[in-house]
Write a structure and sequence with these properties.
heterodimer, A: 62 residues, mainly alpha, 3 helices, B: 539 residues, alpha+beta, seven-stranded antiparallel β-sheet, 20 helices, 17% strand
Chain lengths: 62, 539
């Protein structure tokens, strides 16, 4: 083959070190990722979803 | 075979991968007395709230109605086939792209709020940043990339393996770039949930068309720059993303792969045997175990194939080929690789903070398991699918989760792009001139030219045209001082039109360092591509 197999040790070191390190300062993380959406999910599922889907029908685009 | 001089020069020069985006939104007018296909009404009401300057198109075009360029950031917004379409100003790096795209979404949200404030009680406009309505209607979230005319010709007219290399990269990249979708459309086999919104609508490998029989790689040749050496790849393949990391990797990944092609490094071993079959096969399998055959006979999962592309890119980036061509390519590649490795390891809790299809799937699974929702095929599941991308911060599931999503840019940068153009592209001069001219004196605005009405002492107007032929010209560095001295519009145009004659024309081309050419020649022998032979000859 013309390409190498993935170099596990090398790539792990690179990704765990550089990627997480360099970008960590720019990222914000939250603890309860999904909980914030609970109320919106409840509300949506208490509505007439079929009617909602028909009302959001679109014309095709590009 | 002795290479031509022109061919040698192409191998030694790369074009910075300037990026744009034109994204159609799913807009509807919701009320008790309307049902379906209210897109045009909704888009008209939204566009009315956009504080832009009408571009004055001369002919009627249903795909380009009411285009307004923004004095705030140099982008534009218009109506395309009943969809509000938002276009970011030209940016040079993928991190800027994320900020600029989110800024345009915020401008669309502001327009939605303003339009809704005028609606009667119980009626409202809803805007979704998605790409299909569940009724076989798709609309695009397109990217655009600057590349050399020579590379364009290679992809579409001279070297079919370049096209196939690009196709294989895009097809397998949906593990990163998919927004996720409940169900199948357009005659595809039924499925509960799939990675991509667009996969079911891709029906051919390449073509000019965008509204039917959609191609993986669109061959529309519309450079939006008047420089004959440059071209623009109009990329219609991808889903619209909201997660920062998915957006970054989508844009940055394409920048790097296009630079690989420009340097003649298309590895034929990565080409897919049947990319149209592969894209549906990969998309319809959220377990990521589906395999597709390469032309060389290997059967690879999408993640495995993507890792091979990362390996190719890694060798390239390590030669520092991409300095000035793809800013922060090393960071992008690190994050790309790390994300693929997490996909391979099944670390979906972490990936829900990076990838839309993972986050959306988790949210819908939560709805299905916790509520009175009767499974993936239920209207409720599709309802949640749509609500994921709603721009309404009270119902949009992405926005409600955004606090926990990984960021690659911050709120300040997004807010900056809502009211300021990028400094390092022609969008800077476009925005500054629009601010000076306003609607009264701007006669015609386009991406690569602007025409103004200049009042004369006689009371008549004279017309002045400024060409913006190169996306990397007319930057703040080149012309920022011109706008700082209280000059009139006419005086500034005098300066800018005069400068057109003297501004260096070749600044966009990045020369390869001789030592890097040697490094490339050494690594290229592993691949044996014909262009690599030329690199060795010239090194």
């Amino acid at each position: 083959m013309r390409f190498r197999e993935p170099r596990d040790n090398e790539t792990r070191q690179r990704s765990d070190g550089e990627a997480d390190g360099n970008l960590a300062s720019m990222r914000e993380t939250g603890e309860s990722l999904f909980e914030a959406a609970d109320a919106a999910i409840n509300k949506a599922l208490s509505q007439d979803s079929l009617s909602f889907l028909n009302n959001t029908r679109q014309q095709g685009g590009q | 075979m002795t290479p031509s001089i022109g061919h040698i020069q192409r191998c030694r020069q790369l074009v910075p991968k300037v990026c744009g985006a034109d994204v159609e939104l799913g807009n509807s007018y919701l009320s008790s007395h309307t049902a379906g296909e209210t897109g045009y009404l909704a888009s008209k009401l939204l566009l009315r709230e956009i504080p832009g300057i009408f571009s004055n198109s001369e002919s009627y075009d249903p795909q380009d109605r009411g285009r307004r360029f923004l004095a705030s950031n140099g982008g534009c917004i218009y109506i395309d086939l009943d969809h509000l379409e938002i276009c970011i100003p030209e940016v040079t790096d993928a991190f800027q792209y994320v900020a600029a795209f989110h800024a345009m979404l915020m401008l669309a949200r502001q327009a939605m709020a303003a339009a809704n404030a005028r609606c009667p009680a119980g009626e409202r406009i809803q805007v979704l940043a998605n790409n299909s309505d569940g009724f076989c209607n798709s609309y695009g979230g397109h990217l655009n990339f600057l590349l050399s005319r020579a590379t364009w010709n290679d992809i579409f007219h001279r070297k079919p393996h370049y096209l196939a290399f690009l196709v294989a990269f895009q097809v397998s990249s949906i593990v990163v770039t998919g927004q996720g979708k409940v169900g199948a459309e357009n005659g595809a086999d039924p499925v509960d949930y799939q990675l991509s919104q667009r996969a079911d609508f891709l029906e051919t490998v390449t073509g000019l068309q965008t509204t039917h029989n959609r191609p993986i790689v669109n061959s529309r040749d519309e450079s939006l720059c008047t420089d004959g050496e440059l071209a623009r790849l109009h990329c219609i393949f991808y889903d619209t993303n909201l997660c920062h990391v998915a957006n970054l990797l989508k844009c940055g990944g394409m920048q790097i792969v296009l630079a690989l092609l420009e340097a003649g490094r298309a590895n034929p071993a990565l080409i897919l045997n049947d990319p149209l079959d592969a894209v549906r096969r990969y998309s319809h399998d959220p377990t990521l175990t589906a395999r597709a055959r390469t032309a060389s006979g290997r059967r690879l999962t999408a993640v495995e194939l993507q890792l091979q592309f990362v390996e190719e890119a890694r060798r390239f980036v390590d030669t520092q080929y991409l300095d000035g061509v793809v800013p922060r390519a090393g960071e992008i590649l690190d994050l790309y690789q790390n994300t693929l490795e997490k996909l391979q390891a099944g670390e979906f809790d972490t990936l829900a903070k990076r990838l839309d299809w993972v986050l959306k799937k988790a949210l819908i699974e939560k709805g299905i398991s916790d509520k009175a929702c009767t499974g993936w095929a239920s209207p409720g599941a599709k309802h949640l699918d749509h609500l994921y991308s709603s721009l309404d911060p009270g119902e949009g599931l992405y926005w409600l989760c955004e606090g926990g999503v990984e960021k690659v840019t911050d709120r300040a940068e997004i807010e900056r792009f809502m009211c300021s153009p990028p400094d390092d592209t022609r969008a800077y001069t476009r925005a500054m001139l629009l601010r000076l001219a306003g609607a009264k004196f701007a006669a015609h605005v386009d991406w690569d030219s602007m025409t103004f009405r200049i009042p004369s002492r006689s009371g008549w107007y004279t017309t002045r045209r400024l060409d913006l032929p190169d996306p990397l010209s007319h930057t703040k560095q080149a012309h920022g001082a011109t706008f700082e001295h209280g000059r009139s519009l006419a005086e500034i145009l005098d300066v800018l039109c005069g400068d057109e004659l003297t501004e260096p024309a070749e600044t966009r081309l990045v020369e390869l360092h001789p030592e890097n050419t040697s490094k490339l020649a050494a690594t290229s022998s592993e691949n044996g591509d014909d262009d690599h032979e030329i690199s060795r000859t010239t090194g």
